[in-house]
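Researcher: I'd like a structural prediction for the single chain below. Treat it as a standalone chain; there are no partners to consider.
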Amino acid sequence: MQLRYAYRIDPTPAQRIALAKAFGCARVVFNDALALRNHAHQVGLPFITDAELSRRVSTQAKRRPERAWLGEVPAVVLQQALSDCTTAFRNFFASLSGKRQGPRMAPPRFRSRKDRRQAIRFTKNARFAVTACGKLRLPKIGDVKVRWSRPLPAPPSSVTVIKDAAGRYFASFVVEVREQPLPTASAETGIDLGLGHFAVLADGRKIDSPRFLRREEKKLKKLQKALSRKQKGSSNRAKARVKVARQHAKVAGARREFHHQLSIKIIRENQAVFVEDLAVKGLARTRLAKSVHDAGWSSFVSMLEYKAKLYGRQFAKVGRFFPSSKLCSACGTVAETMPLNVREWSCACGAIHDRDVNAAINILAAGRAERLNACGGPVRPPLAAARAEEAGSRGSAAA
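Model: Treating it as a single chain, here is the predicted structure.
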């Protein structure tokens, strides 16, 4: 499987200028390609092929005086920008035809130099390399210092250089990684995700929600207020914007680190992990939107999924309409209603349930049942011989 390994890089002032040129050239080529295809569609011409597009916006454009500066950056950067444009159109057309699952995609939009994220990509044919001294060698940019937090497990197939809104630079390597099965574990767990507690496991453990955004909300409000008071277009406003972006990056980084540590711990301890397929987009439209985004459930579930595949564990999602909270894990009775303010409830069978723990137990049971059905297990209970008092007709109309 392919994984990304991202590292901070520290380009020199001259290298930052070269990277800025590369970002700008890739953006211009992408916008030129998009404009040509949009114009062809408007006037009723056929869809422009990739080869023709590359010839017009890259090869021929470099010969014109107004686009001569495209030759100052690596050619592979321009080719990858054209590839991104083609991929965006393919995804849009696949979404229109129904071949692409998920919500309907919008048509490709023009890139702006004010976008929060600027990126360029180098592939193998660009001859990028990691030098013996640990620097990243990029064509026409030079040897860039990398902050290696861990070694790469294999030679990378491509690298993407990214500049985020906070002004930080990253190198994201795509690496082919083989599965690394962990020793078999006897435990299995179901996970109920929530807001009061970030996660509740089927064994009764509750992981508190760190609420990273809520912790830094006071400081963020202060920085946002200072930004709003700066004159638009001024240098002070640009500095204030970077301060806000850095604070948001700090929050996102802390959340990501929490997700990584918790997900790898759960994967190591359990042979199978089951979670509920939550409708995050729907919940993000309610009054709980800020708390839902602060929790980052989708990111956490994605980490569980790819780490389970990497380490040879089983992972599955339980349907979002499964009544995990209302179902009694002891007798199987489903309660009629279960308001959110009810955190503990008792069933008619006499069992007293903690709402979240009961939901986690039910998710584990449902995940196991789905696994047995998928492996060819019986869907219905096995047949049994009728007892003597049950045989025959009792009180029928023929008597």
